[in-house]
Amino acid sequence: MSRVDREVDRERTEPAGAADAAAVHERLVRDEQDRLFGLAYRMLGSVAEAEDAVGEAYLRWSRIDTTQIDEPAAWLTTVVTRICVDRLRSAQRQRETYVGSWLPEPVATAVDPADAASTADSLSIAFLILLEALSPLERAAFLLHDVFGYAHDEVAAMLDRKPAAVRQLVRRARDHVASRSHRYETDPDRQREVVEAFQVACGDGDLEAMMELLAPDVAFVGDGGGVVPAVPAPIVGAERVAKLVRGLYVTGERKGLRSQPMEVNAAPAVWVREPDGSTSSVLVFEVTDGRVSAIRGIRNPAKLAAFPNRRPEDTTA
After folding, report:
1. Helix 18-44 to helix 3-11 angle, to the nearest 10 degrees?
2. Over 50: is that where the pLDDT of 124 sits?
3. What is the CATH architecture assignment of 3-180?
4. How far apart (Å, rounded) are the C-alpha atoms in residues 182 and 58?
5. CATH second-level architecture of 188-316?
6. Cβ atoms within 10 Å, residue 78
7. How do residues 263-283 score in pLDDT, each as one tens digit?
8. Cβ–Cβ under 8 Å, residues 144 and 150
9. What span, in angstroms and rounded, lies between the C-alpha atoms of 174 and 27?
10. By C-alpha distance, which of 132, 122, 135 is closest to 101?
11. CA dist., res. 138 & res. 136, Å (int)
12. 56-104 pLDDT tens trace
C-alpha cells in the first residue's frame, strides 16, 4: 500500500456505499497518481513536496461527497495545482536565503525512447530551473496548457482566472522559456555515449580528451544547500570544469566512493555513493551538439532521500 493510500485510510470515516467510494478511490489512485505527481513535481521541483501535495489532494477527496463531482480527475488536478501554487509562494521566499546554488531535487527516470524528446523537454533539470523565474501562476498556467494539454478555458477554471488572463500568463511564461532555452541532444543513446566517453577520459586522467567532450562554455553547478561542501558558485569553461571533475574523481577514488550510471530527469547521470552505500551525490549531465554543456551536482542530503542507501553492482569512481 502506498503512502498516499495509508494517509487516506487513516483519515476516512466510512460512509454509506463505502465499497463504491473505495472502488472509485482505488481507480483514481491507480489512474491519476503518476500524472498528478508529474504535475506537482514540475511545479515544485521537489519529490517529497510533490508527494505531499498529491497526498493532500487525495485526503481532501476522501472527505467530500464525491458523488457531486462530475470529473474527478479534473477536480484532483485543480486541487493539486492550487496546493502547489500556495507552496510555491512560500518556497520562493525560502529560496532567497538558500545557501549557494539551488537545484531541483533529482528524480530517477526510465524514458521510453519513443517519448524521450517530449519527456526530456519538460522534465530536465535545465527546464525546471527556467521555471523558477516564473511566478507561481505563470508556472501553473504554462505547465497545465503547454505540457499537460489543458485548454485555456480549463486552466482558467483550475486557477480561478478569466481565460484572457490565462492566455497572458501562458504567453509570458512561454516567451521566457523560449528566450532562455537552447537546443540540446534529444537522442538518449547519443547522450549516454558522450557522457560515457567523458567518464572514461576522466578515469584515464586525460584532460585533453575531457576538454574535447566539453562545450567551451560548459558550466558545473553544485548544490550542497549549506549542509555539505559544494562549489559555492558555478564553474565555467572547459578547462576549469575538466580539472574540477578530474580532481573530484581522484578525491573520490581515494575515499573509496562508488559510482553507477543511471538516468535522472530524462538525462544521463552518475550516482555516487559512500563506501557504506549511502548517497554522496548525483551528477546530472546535459549534452548539446555532441558535447557536455552542463554538469549539475546535487549533494544536499535533503534532496537525495529518494535514492536508496544500498550497494548495487557498481564501479569505483
Report:
1. 130
2. yes
3. Up-down Bundle (1.20)
4. 37
5. Roll (3.10)
6. 19
7. 999 999 999 999 999 999 999
8. yes
9. 34
10. 132
11. 6
12. 999 999 898 888 888 999 999 999 999 999 999 988 777 778 899 999 9
Q: Are 140 and 134 in contact (CB under 8 A)?
A: no
CA distance 221 to 235: 7
Q: What is the mean pLDDT of residues 190-210?
A: 97
Which residue has 567532450 as its cell numbers? 213
Rounded to 5°, the CA angle 97-273-247 comes to 75
pTM metric for this prediction: 0.84
pLDDT of the residue at 155: 98
**Can you list the alpha helix ranges (DSSP code H) found in 96-231?**
116-123, 125-131, 136-142, 152-159, 163-180, 188-204, 207-212
Residue spans of the domains in the chain: they are: 3-180, 188-316
Distance CA 283, CA 41 (A): 19
pLDDT above 50 for 15: no
Nearest Cα residue to 263 out of 307, 302, 230, 309: 307
Sequence letter at residue 267:
A
Pairwise CA distance, residues 281 & 126, whole Å: 18
